[in-house]
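can u do me a favor
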């Protein structure tokens, strides 16, 4: 009896060791590439540090909350935060509405829906830099868009060079390039809704619009919440498009300056790494707070049989 118990103990111990060996690469990589840098960045946000300093990170001057207070008083950071907020308010709702409409279209019985699914999704897997360069070609003064508008007697615009048009132009580019991702997620949500619910609604006399309003939308709530959170995080972290279009300076007149672009400039051009880390954690706090608000508004996930 004791021999069997000892054998069972050795087997369980061996299983535990094997389990830890399997997860050890993930644990090490997480500590080295995520948890460690996160802790160091948080400490740096309370220090005055530059890569050009001869001192190490631990020897850098401690300034407390000065970096956070300076960020809140920094006019360029305020402008970047305003631009990012306007960008999110413009992109997120339009992006999700178009994605939902496209998902409803490709989930219907139209011919060639596989082709449309692929066509709508292709821009999502295209490099952001490549998309930005393509739109710069389309939106330049003698580009395709102005040539098209000229047919209707509309004068050419310098889309990315105009303070009023630069940010909306980037919004349009972002919507076009990423709407396919949210379409696919909405499509998965639509296909997860039992068809029997639509049949029951039809038997009760509900038309297509009533089925969409009272069946589809409520049951898409978890999917919509996921898309909303992911889209909002993505828009608040916008960097590539603004960097490529403005050449990294956020121009014209900081019209395309975003929080992440300003963070990049502060840390890797001005070498104010402590200040840049403080900006990063302010952005994290904003995104985290917005996510909690959305979770509160959407409530519990909808369940159905």
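np, heres the sequence
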């Amino acid at each position: 009896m004791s021999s069997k118990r000892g054998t069972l103990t050795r087997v369980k111990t061996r299983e535990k060791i094997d389990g830890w060996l399997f997860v050890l690469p993930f644990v090490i990589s997480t500590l080295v590439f995520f948890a460690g840098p996160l802790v160091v960045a948080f400490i740096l946000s309370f220090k005055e540090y530059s890569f050009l300093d001869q001192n190490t990170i631990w020897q850098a001057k401690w300034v407390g909350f000065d970096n956070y207070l300076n960020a809140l008083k920094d006019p360029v950071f305020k402008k970047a935060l305003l631009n990012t907020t306007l960008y999110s308010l413009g992109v997120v709702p339009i992006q999700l509405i178009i994605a939902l409409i496209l998902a409803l279209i490709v989930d219907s019985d139209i011919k060639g829906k596989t082709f449309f699914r692929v066509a709508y999704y292709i821009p999502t897997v295209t490099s952001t830099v490549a998309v930005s360069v393509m739109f710069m070609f389309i939106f330049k003064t003698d580009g395709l868009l102005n040539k098209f508008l000229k047919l209707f007697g509309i004068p050419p615009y310098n889309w990315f060079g105009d303070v009023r048009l630069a940010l909306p132009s980037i919004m349009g580019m972002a919507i076009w390039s990423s709407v396919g991702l949210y379409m696919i997620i909405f499509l998965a949500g639509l296909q997860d809704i039992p068809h029997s619910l639509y049949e029951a609604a039809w038997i009760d006399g509900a038309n297509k619009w009533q089925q969409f309003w009272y069946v589809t939308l409520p049951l898409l709530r978890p999917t919509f919440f996921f898309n909303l959170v992911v889209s909002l995080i993505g828009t608040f972290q916008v960097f590539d498009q603004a960097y490529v279009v403005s050449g990294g300076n956020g121009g014209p007149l900081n019209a395309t300056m975003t929080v992440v672009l300003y963070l990049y400039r502060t840390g890797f051009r001005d070498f104010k790494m402590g200040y840049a880390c403080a900006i990063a954690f302010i952005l994290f706090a904003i995104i985290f707070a917005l996510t909690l608000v959305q979770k509160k508004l959407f409530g519990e996930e909808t369940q159905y049989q």
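Strands lie at 47-48, 61-62. hope that helps!!
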